[in-house]
Amino acid sequence: MTKIRAAITAIHGYVPEDILSNAELEKIVDTNDEWITTRTGIKERRILKGEGQGTSVMGAKAVQGLLEKRGIKPEEVDLLICSTVTPDMKFPATANLIAHKTGINNAFSFDTNAACSGFIYTLVTAAQFVESGRYKKVIVVGADKMSSIVDYTDRQTCVIFGDGAAAVLLEPTEEESGIMDHIFQSDGCGHIHLHMKAGGSAYPPTHENIDAREHYVYQEGQAVFKFAVKNMADVAVEVIERNNLKPEDIAWLVPHQANMRIIEAVSRRSGIPLDKVMVNIHKYGNTTNATIPLCLWEWENRMKKGDNIVLAAFGGGFTWGSIWLKWAYDPI
Ligand code: UT7
Question: Does the reported pTM lie above 0.85?
Answer without folding.
Answer: yes
